[in-house]
Each structure stands twice: as structure tokens, then as C-alpha cells.
């Protein structure tokens, strides 16, 4: 037989660190090729000219230049248009 009582289970031990999402380079800032501009979950911001989207939806600079953010209307599947932010490097 055991000499120690049952310990039970802990319910609040699984804690993960933050993902450090968000805009890393703001409008008007200089970027080099390959630099991260936006870290995001899903396509909250869209990659425009001079940028590319990686597999986890991170927007990177495809060339050296200056970051710009523009509001653009995007058509949804239902036909409704919604404003979305487009990130470009020029």
C-alpha cells in the first residue's frame, strides 16, 4: 500500500507564452529584402506589391524600400465588399 495520499490533478499548469503578433515595421519605415513587416494569424492584412505572404500569413518585404499601408475594398464570396489593409513596399 502507498504511504502518501493521492495528489490529485493540477488544472492551471499549461501556460504558453504570447506569440508576439502585430505590425513590426510601420508606414514610412525603411525595410530590407526579407524583413518581417507584419506577423498575423489569418489574413487580417493583405500582401501587396513588393511583399510576399509566407505559410503562417507573415508578410515579408520582397525588396528594399519603404513600407506603405493602404485601405482597399475587397470583394467577398457573397458579393459584399469590405475594407482591408494592403501592405506594400515601394
> Which spans of ≥5 residues are poorly predicted at pLDDT below 50?
none
- In this structure, how is the largest beta sheet organized? 4 strands, antiparallel
* Portion in strands: 35-45%
In CATH, the architecture is Beta Barrel
**Rg (C-alpha, Å):** 21 Å
Give a verbal description of the structure.
- The chain has 90 residues and is mostly beta strands.
- The chain has one domain: RNA polymerase II/Efflux pump adaptor protein, barrel-sandwich hybrid domain (OB fold (Dihydrolipoamide Acetyltransferase, E2P), Beta Barrel).
- Helix content is 0%, strand content 41%.
- The chain contains no helices and eight strands.
- It has strands at 22-23, 30-31, 36-39, 45-47, 51-53, 59-61, 65-75, 81-89.
- It has a four-stranded antiparallel sheet with strand order 1-3-6-5, with no helix packed on it. Strands 2-7-8-4 form a four-stranded mixed sheet, with no helix packed on it.
- The mean pLDDT is 92.
Amino acid at each position: 500500500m502507498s504511504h502518501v495520499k493521492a495528489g490529485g490533478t493540477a488544472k492551471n499548469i499549461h501556460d504558453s507564452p504570447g506569440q508576439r503578433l502585430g505590425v513590426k515595421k510601420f508606414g514610412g519605415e525603411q525595410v530590407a529584402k526579407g524583413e518581417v513587416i507584419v506577423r498575423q494569424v489569418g489574413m487580417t492584412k493583405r500582401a501587396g506589391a513588393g511583399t510576399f505572404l509566407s505559410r503562417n500569413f507573415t508578410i515579408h518585404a520582397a525588396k528594399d524600400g519603404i513600407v506603405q499601408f493602404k485601405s482597399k475594398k475587397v470583394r467577398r464570396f457573397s458579393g459584399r465588399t469590405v475594407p482591408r489593409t494592403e501592405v506594400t513596399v515601394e
